[in-house]
Amino acid sequence: MDNIQIVILIIYTLAYIIVSFIQKQSINSLEKRVDNQTGLINNQSALINNQTGVINSMKSFMEIFDLKKIKEYVKVNEESAIIKASNFIADESKVKDFAFEFSKEIAEDVKKAQIEKIGEQHTEMIEVAFEVIKMIEPKDRERFVLEKLGKSKHIFIPFLDKIKNSAS
Questions:
Q1: Residue 131: exposed, middle, or buried by beta-carbon count in 10 A (0-12, 13-18, 19+)?
Q2: Of 3, 46, 117, 141, which sees the most CB atoms within 10 A?
Q3: Is-contact 136 149, C-beta < 8 A?
Q4: Is 168 helix (H, G, I), strand (E, B) or coil?
Q5: Nearest Cα to Cα of residue 9 among 17, 152, 110
Q6: Once rounded to an integer, what is the mean pLDDT over residues 56-76?
Q7: First to last CA, the chain
Q8: Residue 53: pLDDT above 60?
Q9: Distance (Å, rounded) from C-alpha 160 to C-alpha 133?
Q10: How many Cα atoms occupy the beta-carbon half-sphere of 74 within 13 Å?
């Protein structure tokens, strides 16, 4: 083998090694790309599975809250309330009892207010009557109380005694 053949063989070997190295780098790069694409595909697959789960959950949720069933339930409740009210009104004794209790409470409140008002007015009237009795002649006072204030004489007779005692 001569020198030229050896040089060509060395160049050929170097070229083979360089090409092999370049091909190895290309293969590694392609494997990385394939791995990345496989990872992307797996991520997209997971997203699709997740979205499928969300869609299934929404379907279940919508089935639970079926608007027609809810409307029917509300309608049944309204009808039930109307029936109860009409039964209550139809039962005359219940209505009478309710009306009696209500009017009794109102009457008690009115009575208390009137008693307070009448009590104040009564006190005023008694004071006026005392003043009128004082203006009457002493000899006519007892006759006036007995004739004109017969129902309340028990209030004024002791007063007459006090007037007599104070005049003496």
A1: exposed
A2: 141
A3: no
A4: coil
A5: 17
A6: 71
A7: 178
A8: yes
A9: 8
A10: 6
Residue 136 CB contacts under 8 Å (≥ 6 apart), including other chains: 144
- Which contiguous run of DSSP H or E holds residue 27? helix 3-64
Q: What is the pLDDT of residue 63?
A: 66
Distances (CA, A) of 35 to 29, 30, 49, 95: 10, 8, 21, 83
Q: How far apart are the C-alpha atoms of 83 and 64, rounded to whole Å?
A: 28
| Gyration radius (Cα) of the chain, Å | 57
- C-alpha span between 153 and 163 (Å, rounded): 15
- Cα–Cα distance between 77 and 66 in angstroms, integer? 17
Q: CA 7 to CA 163: how far, in whole Å?
A: 163
* Token pair listed for 21: 């190295």
Are 134 and 163 in contact by the 8 Å Cβ rule? The answer is yes
pTM for this entry:
0.33
Distance, in Å, from the CA atom of 128 to the CA atom of 134, rounded to the nearest integer, reads 10
Question: Which one-letter amino acid corresponds to residue 138?
Answer: P
Q: Are the C-beta atoms of 159 and 130 separated by less than 8 Å?
A: yes
